[in-house]
């Protein structure tokens, strides 16, 4: 039993680090539906929003007679639906994933079945309200195919890879502020001497600004950048040495 739990912990470790194919093949289908539930929630949220957006765009003349696409209301609705399609589905999938981690196996399965039931209910509501113009069997086939595709991608480990990539991307975004603060002095010098002073450079008399002086200015900027790079690399190396000495690397 201890050995089995150790193997499960090792496989979970690989999944968290975006290496799902290392997991044994027979274990990839374990708890497949609960693992696919966050992606199903994403699909459940994004599909109606896109349907409503398409409905508004197709019937803009009837909804805003006279103004049409020039209407402020149309622009606000399209903007709101677009932002909603970009924000709400990922946020919903993340919240469901985080909530399911606190549940047991039975609770996770109940949530997964509930999400499937809501997906079917949303399909029926969209058909009744006219958001789907095609026959019901076509919409049902498309929805079933989408769910099957999500299950297949979950089996192949696409969710683990995307989750790992998202975590790494967030960490890199957090590091942008530090990198920008370190590069800010050199960036300000380049902006001052190139973009802001562009008109001054254009007014320089060629008789007083020969090729040698021009290359001298370029060399000065290169030297300034090299000194700045040396200072930054030196700081990074000292930080790396401290981490190695502390055993965190």
Automatic annotation (TrEMBL):
Transmembrane intervals: 32-54, 74-96, 108-125, 137-162, 183-202, 214-233
UniProt keyword annotations, A-Z: Membrane, Transmembrane, Transmembrane helix
Superkingdom of origin organism: Bacteria
Name of the protein in question: Uncharacterized protein
Species of origin: Thermocrispum agreste
Organism lineage string: Bacteria, Bacillati, Actinomycetota, Actinomycetes, Pseudonocardiales
């Amino acid at each position: 039993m201890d050995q089995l739990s150790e193997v499960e912990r090792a496989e979970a470790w690989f999944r968290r680090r975006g290496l799902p194919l290392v997991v044994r093949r027979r274990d990839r289908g374990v708890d497949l539906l609960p693992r696919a539930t966050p992606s199903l929630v994403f699909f459940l949220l994004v599909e109606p929003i896109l349907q409503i957006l398409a409905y508004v765009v197709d019937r803009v003349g009837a909804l805003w007679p006279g103004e049409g696409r020039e209407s402020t209301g149309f622009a606000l609705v399209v903007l709101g639906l677009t932002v909603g399609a970009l924000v709400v589905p990922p946020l919903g999938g993340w919240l469901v994933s985080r909530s399911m981690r606190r549940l047991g196996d039975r609770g996770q399965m109940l949530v997964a079945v509930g999400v499937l039931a809501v997906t079917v209910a949303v399909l029926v509501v969209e058909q009744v309200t006219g958001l789907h113009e095609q026959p019901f069997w076509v919409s049902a086939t498309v929805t079933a195919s989408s769910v099957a595709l999500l299950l297949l991608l979950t089996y192949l480990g696409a969710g683990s890879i995307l989750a790992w990539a998202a975590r790494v991307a967030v960490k890199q975004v957090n590091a942008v502020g530090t990198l920008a603060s370190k590069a800010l002095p050199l960036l300000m010098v380049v902006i001052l001497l190139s973009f802001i002073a562009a008109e001054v450079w254009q007014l320089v008399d060629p008789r007083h600004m020969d090729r040698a002086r021009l290359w001298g200015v370029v060399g000065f900027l290169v030297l300034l950048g090299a000194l700045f790079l040396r200072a930054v690399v030196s700081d990074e190396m000292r930080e790396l040495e401290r981490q190695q000495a502390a055993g965190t690397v």
